[in-house]
Specification:
TIM Barrel, six-stranded parallel sheet, 6 strands
Length: about 230
């Protein structure tokens, strides 16, 4: 197993974040695609970075999208790997956005390998913060799970994930890993993915298998920045 981080560069400002949405709106309005909306309908804070570690600018960009651009808070999702202080602050905000929590393992020692922040805020604290958010906004939390062959695709992990999902009434989103040059990790084969999903359902979890898109143009999660840097 080989994982190499590209490292921290800098935080985006609220203006830079909102500008991406404004630019997409302009493109949709001036060069509409077939069957495309006239404006951005959903925004997800996710990808190359931790939104809640940049809390001030994440918060301000949400405020501008909702209060200035007129977007519904329910069309905005903030994804986190478990930045507990930010999760609790987000629970106190007036906007009922969606919260997605990337777990990737239910076994503390294994999760620390995949998500090092687990050493600072253990999974039990993350789940408690997610439940606090759910209760504050009456919004179902999503649990994100990237399947990695031989790492987090066991029946034990599926059973543990289902237990957590039931405990906080969360929805589980599963997606197979997007391979990148910085890692030797690979996604499980199709049959193994189906078995993992089947175990989750059998254990009572609400689960969606997400389709992997954009790999053919290096635009899947984690790939676009690598191509730009190359």
């Amino acid at each position: 197993m080989r994982r190499v981080s590209s490292g921290f560069d800098r935080h985006l400002t609220a203006g830079e974040i909102v500008a991406q949405v404004a630019y997409a709106n302009a493109v949709l309005q001036t060069n509409p695609l077939p069957k495309s909306p006239e404006r951005v309908t959903n925004v997800v804070f996710m990808g190359m970075g931790e939104p809640l570690a940049n809390y001030r600018h994440t918060r301000e960009s949400i405020r501008r999208m909702v209060e200035v651009m007129g977007m519904s808070a329910r069309s905005i999702t903030v994804s986190t790997v478990g930045f507990v202080p930010g999760m609790l602050r987000l629970a106190d905000e007036p906007w009922s956005v969606n919260l997605a929590v990337s777990l990737h393992s239910t076994i503390p020692s294994e999760r620390s390998k995949l998500v090092p922040i687990n050493d600072r805020w253990p999974i039990d604290d993350v789940i408690a913060a997610a439940d606090t958010f759910r209760e504050a906004h009456n919004r179902r939390v999503s649990l994100e799970w990237t399947l990695i062959a031989g790492e987090n695709d066991s029946d034990q992990e599926a059973i543990g994930l289902a237990r957590i999902a039931r405990s906080i009434r969360a929805h589980v989103n599963v997606i197979a890993l997007n391979p990148t040059p910085l890692s030797t990790d690979r996604p499980p084969d199709h049959d193994h993915v189906r078995r993992f999903i089947g175990t989750l359902k059998r254990e009572g979890a609400n689960v969606t298998l997400r389709d992997t898109r954009g790999q053919d143009i290096d635009a899947a999660c984690g790939q676009l920045r690598l191509r730009a840097e190359d």
